[in-house]
Write a structure and sequence with these properties.
This protein starts with a helix and ends in a 6-residue tail after the last helix. It has about 160 residues and is mainly alpha-helical. Helix 1 crosses helix 7 and helix 2 packs antiparallel against helix 6. The protein contains seven helices and no strands.
Length: about 160
């Protein structure tokens, strides 16, 4: 539990620095990792599924982040474009997840969307930090996340 808490704080610290630099790809990566970590834990994914979900979420987060920046101020257009991206993600997930996992995911989509919005709100509300120290934290968090994904029993 302590490891999970420490990793969560490290992720927030990393995101804090990424926002300050305006680095879209780093923001998208943090956004995808946050959402993927939740899905891996809640849907109890195996290594193969976890890796595929991370890949898909990274692609989707990059697309959504780009949409949000391109259509800043036009909420209706952002919602339309994001809905199309998320629908495509749902189809990809259907091929990767078991029927039970997909049903759980599909039922919790609103919760995942809410968590993503809150994560981005926290990200946008923070100021600048030292990016170099945050990048080192990212490397450690990514290594820790890979260890957790390969052995989910250590999360408890």
């Amino acid at each position: 539990m302590k490891k999970l808490l420490v990793m969560t704080f490290m992720v927030f610290g990393i995101v804090y620095g990424a926002t300050a630099t305006g680095n879209v790809s780093l923001i998208a990566e943090k956004r995808a990792n946050y959402l993927s970590d939740q899905m891996i834990k809640e849907l109890r994914l195996n290594n193969y599924q976890a890796n595929k979900i991370r890949e898909i979420n990274l692609d989707v987060a990059a697309q959504i982040t780009e949409i949000e920046q391109n259509f800043d101020g036009n909420q209706k257009m952002i919602e339309e474009k994001c809905k199309a991206v998320l629908t495509a993600r749902d189809l990809e997930f259907e091929d990767i997840l078991s029927t039970v996992q997909y049903n759980d995911y599909f039922g919790d989509r609103k919760m995942y969307s809410k968590a993503d919005r809150e994560f981005m709100a926290n990200l946008n509300g923070q100021g600048s930090e030292n990016l170099a120290s945050n990048e080192r934290s990212t490397e450690r968090a990514t290594a820790g996340n890979a260890a957790v994904a390969s052995n989910p029993s250590t999360v408890n």
